[in-house]
Amino acid sequence: MADPSWKQRRRNDFENAKAQCLGKRDKSFAGRIDPHAVDICGLINEREDCYTTSSCSGRCFMYCGEGVKATNDFQRFRISHEKIMEPQRYFDLNTIDSDPTGGGDPVRSIGQYENSLGSKQGTTTTPTEEKKERSDLIWFRFEPFILHVACQSLSSANALMNAARPAFKNVGLTTWKDSRYLVAIWGDEGLEMPLTTPAGRELHDDYVWLAGLVNERHERNWSKIGRFCKSVRDMAPPNDADLEEPPEELSSNVPKSFDVIGDVAYLHALPEGDAELIGEAIMKKNRHIKVVVARKSNLDGTERAPGEDGLVIIAGAHRSPIITTHAEYGIKCVVDLNHTFFSPRMGQERLRICQQVARGEEVLVLFSGVGMDALQLAGRTEASSVTAVELNEVGIQCLQRSHRMLERNKTVKCAGASERLKIIHGDVLKVLPESLPKDHFDRVLAPRPKEGAMDGDLGTGDGGETFLDVILPHLKDGGECHWYDFVADHEFPECTRTRQLLDRVCNQHSLSMRVLHVANAGSVAKRQLRVCIDFKVVR
Fold this sequence. Notes:
Layout: H1 4-22, H2 38-46, E1 50-56, E2 59-64, E3 75-80, H3 87-90, E4 139-143, E5 146-151, H4 154-164, E6 170-177, E7 180-186, E8 191-194, H5 207-233, H6 248-251, E9 259-261, E10 264-267, H7 275-285, E11 291-295, E12 311-316, E13 323-328, E14 331-336, H8 347-354, E15 362-365, H9 372-380, E16 385-390, H10 393-408, H11 417-420, E17 421-425, H12 428-435, E18 441-446, H13 465-471, E19 475-488, H14 496-508, E20 512-525, E21 528-538
Parallel strand pairs: 10-11, 15-16, 15-18, 16-17, 18-19
Antiparallel strand pairs: 1-5, 2-3, 2-4, 4-8, 5-7, 6-7, 9-10, 11-12, 13-14, 19-21, 20-21
């Protein structure tokens, strides 16, 4: 039998590898996960036993050269991860220089990440670089869905492959070393054809027919991704039989669930037994913890904070108020535990949002609290700007202190992070209509606080409709919103009640709405979940 401590080390190594991989800046052309791959990537990354290393939802593009991306003469243009809606524009080869997108994906560029036509899209160029000569022979290619997933064990890899095979024929294990098993899943809807002769003469003039070939493949591709998502949702949870149990002398004293925020261990209720001994046991188990606190009362009010007397220190140094500095993926944030709401359990959710932000986006973060969401977006993505709005004055003070630390943070990969972050103190219902431009933001993050008994499946409130009504006018055409709601476990993942609310309010604003993904953002009470509905609007 394997040594339990060895098994636990393997588990820890995998968790560290997952955090490092998902925490890296997305270096793809768009700088984000493709919209049609958001759902499947989110479902896989929510599992403890696997994580995605690369993905593409399927795309078409034109190219010159040998057709191998690693070669120097390979040039591609008019990349599109969506259907071709303007065939005459997209396939008009005479306008490649004057209309580089052709109605496909926008050419994202901001500051130091300028792209020029004739260079490989997604690579950094400078204004002094010379434009390459383009060959007269132009090819067209459609690449189907492809996904690479790292799994913790062979059984996890086998379970994932079994879930993928009903939808995709090409599924296999490509790597199995260093306690990691890499699964590759790719579609079979490929297409490759020349658009011109070597002399530059066009071979096709029926652009509508060409677009039909591509759009049909997109439809089949997306349908298979949907079937794969359903199979992943139906997968059994990871087997925890290999996990090492805590030492017997601590297991009866130390609570099974508590948060570590900075150097503070945060217990959500007063522990049973000798609180001081339990606090000391927690500090002995984790030497980075300097203070152990327990919450004495429920969170209430719009700030969802314990208040001045809501926390009691059961071990460690005395602090009043209890303030600490919490770090996620190298980004530091000041947190006042007495007067603000903060949950380190939302770290994975913040990472998921960062992975969806494309290069050059204008991002709005509402109900920002101490600002960790906004700081992560500014420091770890290539968004053009990040605007944070918060009503709680203490939360604003924490964010301002964190903003100053962001200026000096040398681990931040994206230059100019602090300059791109704007902080606004005020009520969302007043700031949006009075101070912010309409049709301006590519993405809005709305982690609204829970309004007690007014929220949830039995809630008496409006489900956040008042906030949604002022948010929608500020989204661009094609913009995305991450809307947080509170549902019973039996409502997840369909969340029909929330979908109906979103659809109704969007219709009132003459918008059509498409849900991209429904994420479980954690439990807020027994059988009650916080969920995030990612949806896209079209005017």
